[in-house]
From TrEMBL, chain B:
The keyword Flavoprotein does not apply. The keyword Oxidoreductase applies. This is Aldehyde dehydrogenase family protein. It comes from Natronogracilivirga saccharolytica. Coiled coil: none annotated. InterPro entries: Ald_DH/histidinol_DH, Ald_DH_C, Ald_DH_CS_GLU, Ald_DH_N, Aldehyde_DH_dom. The active site is at E272. Keywords: Oxidoreductase. SUPFAM superfamilies: ALDH-like.
């Protein structure tokens, strides 16, 4: 009896709501847990990165203008779709990264984290906004607004829950992002892109690149149309480069390396606040 | 209103019909020492180098005092004194006691308010009316506001436990010396940090007076250390390994260099940098009110204001009328002796700053921009600049893109609200913006689209300790004022 030959998936970049190969046609190979070749991932080029930033910029104001309720529904939809494909994520994590038990824990936590942030979209603004009792006859209030386009360097450890934990608060707050996936476990990010793609997330809101940190991160961090950077990889050299390049256009930088993303306290509205600017508005009170 | 109507309209003329008698505030009430040392560990100490620099009155070019120039060794001493005070006293003190010290500081400044106002005017060149009615009252209010936070921090950020950062290094500008010191010192102390602060090179005197006041208040030695000096002293603070957090207010260029310098370290930082605020006047705006707002927006403090409304964007239908009225109003502005209570516009803060303003204006002449200056007569000595409008400019001109930091307003017109927003957002800055319209819905829509940290709708240049202030984009990171102003000085753990 002949054994059925399984169908392999071509993993692609996800930018502007489309799956595509790198314009460079470069690739790199990632291994499974046993050290056997698992997949050829696209080795994103600087041009791929720039295209991704352009897509993120184009999508940003529309995404921020969606109602908070609508953004919440879309994040929740991601959780719904992911729940339906839970076994796929568990299997891929088990094959490429961790034990079956850990793969299940991580996948379940990732789905729950999406639900968590889905519920925050229409609440964080109430938590962080203030009406300020100024001493002059003015009505004065402050509220958070998204930074804009956020560059993200994803962690290698816990590649699924780590990725979901950093992308969810960024987009929950109305930002769009360009993510460079884990260098060692990038395939799971490409699979997550399939969830994003089928969950009513507008194209360009989340852009996912695979490739080498040293080839992409310095340029993403120096890009003048990227407003903020989230660094979650355990890579002190690249972290310093990101912090340095921030000065070119005064990027906001947040570093979350070595976070245990499975912990309950690895989720909170403060992760949303990390990528918000506070805007204060004054108006005279009188006749 | 048509052009014809504008021309026939009766206008009030103030310029040459009468003059005001001098009404100078007496300055001999303030004693200024011939020499000021560094304030380290609760006492005044001579700088290791023995070097002093001059602080002059920009309105008279007369020497006010000589001030110590702090070098590396002095900054070392200041940082270790701040660390010791943090470890041994300030971080162990019950929060309510910490708060009481800050309340005490607020009250002591209030008692000596006029003295501080006069000294601020002497050292900066700003009109006494502003230092007396804006700067110093705001200073007091700021200390009073943050004093109250000291024992209430657990209520500020639900779900998190607040802890101080440690030793804060603070660098402040010359435009509002005493107020910027308050914006930095008050929240840092309330949250339990100790401080090494550097006043600006041209305006160190009120900070030294403040040091005397801290002694009077019984503030424990080392809790606030004041080191005077030029930019190099600031660099010593920024690069010092014993500093946990940097708070800087100043130019975007220096802010960027700080961001670069602290890369790879664990130092937290907040930056409050430059601005190029658009003051947008729609055709349904209350025009007379808008004129007052424009004048306040750009001529307050000689335009030495990071959030100054330095770009007027006016909708075409009202531009002739508005500019006509603006010019008439500008002619009434009194430029001169900052100590005179009638003065509207004082001296430019330094010779260097005056030269920078003149450089922009001479470039405007070369580029065939249209310059209007009022017919003001200027004193012979000191650094002065008449209120200035620059018309016939486009978005790419340097004077539209860059911060002049003087009494210079550019004027552009627009047709649609979309065009106004696009012009307003078309600089690297994003600190503030003004919106003038009678239509509430337009305020909210425009205000949402403008990428700036402060939106003044039908008002401008208003400040309050309860109100968070800070920039979007290259105008800075972090907020000062209000509950949000606590965040930069705390480590929050869950």
């Amino acid at each position: 009896m002949s054994k059925r030959l399984n169908v392999l998936k071509t993993y692609k970049l996800y930018t502007g709501g489309k799956f595509s190969r790198s314009e460079s046609e470069h690739y790199f190979q990632v291994m499974d847990k046993k050290g056997n070749p698992f997949a050829n991932l696209c080795r994103a080029s600087r041009k791929d990165m720039r295209n991704a930033v352009a897509a993120a910029r184009k999508a940003q104001s529309g995404w921020a203008d969606r109602s908070a309720y609508n953004r919440g529904q879309i994040l929740y939809r991601m959780a719904e779709i992911m729940e339906g494909r839970r076994d796929q994520f568990v299997a891929e994590l088990e094959r490429t990264a961790v034990s079956r038990r850990k793969a299940e824990t991580e996948t379940d936590a990732a789905i729950d984290r999406l639900v968590h942030y889905a519920g925050w979209t229409d609440k964080y603004s109430s938590i962080f906004s203030t009406v300020n009792p100024v001493a002059s006859p003015h009505f004065n209030f402050s509220m958070p607004e998204p930074n804009g386009v956020v560059g993200i360097a994803a962690p290698d450890d816990m590649p699924l829950i780590g990725l979901v934990s950093i992308v969810a608060p960024v987009i929950a707050g109305g930002n769009t992002c360009v993510v460079l996936a884990s260098e060692t476990h990038g395939s799971i990010a490409c699979t997550l892109a399939e969830i994003i793609h089928s969950s009513d997330v507008p194209g360009g809101v989340v852009n996912i690149l695979t490739g080498y940190r040293k080839e992409i991160i310095p340029h993403l961090a120096s890009h003048m149309d990227v407003n903020a950077f989230l660094f979650a990889a355990d890579d002190p050299g690249q972290k310093k480069i990101v912090q340095e390049n921030a000065h070119l256009n005064v990027k906001r930088i947040q570093c979350y390396e070595k976070t245990d993303w499975l912990k309950d306290n690895a989720q909170s509205p403060y992760y949303i606040l990390d990528f918000q600017d506070i805007k204060t508005t004054w108006h005279p009170v009188g006749t | 209103m048509s052009e014809k109507e504008t021309k026939t309209e009766k206008t009030l003329r103030f310029d040459d019909l009468w003059s005001y008698d001098p009404a100078p505030e007496s300055a001999d009430y303030v004693t200024i020492a011939g020499k000021y040392d560094l304030f380290i560990n609760g006492s005044f100490q001579a700088p290791e180098s023995g070097k002093y620099f001059k602080s002059i009155n920009p309105a008279t070019e007369e020497l006010l005092s000589e001030v110590a120039e702090a070098g590396k060794k002095d900054v070392d001493k200041a940082v270790s004194s701040a660390r010791k005070a943090y470890d041994e006293i300030w971080s162990k003190m019950p929060a309510k006691e910490r708060g009481k010290y800050i309340f005490r500081i607020a009250r002591l400044i209030q008692e000596r308010a006029r003295e501080f106002a006069i000294l601020e005017t002497l050292d900066t060149g700003k009109p006494i009316r502003e230092s007396r009615d804006v700067d110093i009252p705001q200073v007091i209010a700021h200390y009073f506001y943050y004093a109250g936070w000291a024992d209430k921090l657990n209520y500020a950020f639900p779900g998190l436990t607040p802890k101080p950062v440690g030793v804060a290094g603070q660098i402040i500008p010359w435009n509002f010396p005493m107020l910027m010191a308050a914006w930095k010192i008050a929240p840092a102390l309330a949250t339990g940090n100790t401080i090494v602060i550097k006043p600006a090179e041209t305006t160190p005197l009120t900070a030294m007076k403040l040091a005397e006041l801290f002694k009077d208040a019984g503030l424990p030695p080392g809790v606030v250390n004041i080191v005077t000096g030029p930019g190099s002293t600031g660099a010593e603070i920024v690069n010092h390994p014993g500093i946990d957090k940097i708070a800087f207010t100043g130019s975007t260029a220096v802010g960027k260099s700080i961001q670069q310098a602290v890369a790879g370290t664990e130092k937290k930082y907040t930056l409050e940098l430059g601005g190029k605020a658009a003051n947008i006047v729609f055709d349904d705006a209350p025009i007379d009110q808008a004129v007052e707002g424009i004048v306040n927006g750009i001529f307050f403090n000689q335009g030495h204001v990071c959030c100054a409304g330095s770009r007027l964007l006016v909708q075409e239908g009202v531009s002739d009328e508005l500019i006509h009225k603006l010019k008439l109003r500008m002619e009434t502005l009194i430029v001169g002796d900052p100590l005179d209570k009638n003065t509207d516009i004082g001296a430019i803060n330094s010779k260097m700053q005056l030269e920078r303003i003149r450089e922009y204006l001479s470039e405007s002449v070369e580029e065939n921009q249209q310059i209007f200056q009022t017919k003001c007569s200027l004193p012979d000595k000191g650094y002065w600049c008449c209120p200035t409008l620059v018309e016939n400019v486009s978005q790419s001109h340097r004077i539209v893109q860059e911060e002049v930091f003087g009494p210079v307003l550019t004027i552009q017109t627009f047709r649609t609200p979309e065009e106004a927003v696009s012009l307003a957002n078309n600089t690297h800055y994003g600190l503030s913006s003004g919106i003038w319209t009678d239509k509430g819905s337009k305020i909210f829509k425009t205000g949402k689209q403008i990428r700036a940290g402060v939106i003044w709708a039908n008002t401008f240049n208003k400040f309050d300790p309860t109100s968070p202030f800070g920039g979007f984009k290259e105008s800075g990171v972090g907020r000062e004022g209000g509950i949000h102003g606590l965040l930069p000085y705390l480590e929050l753990s869950s």
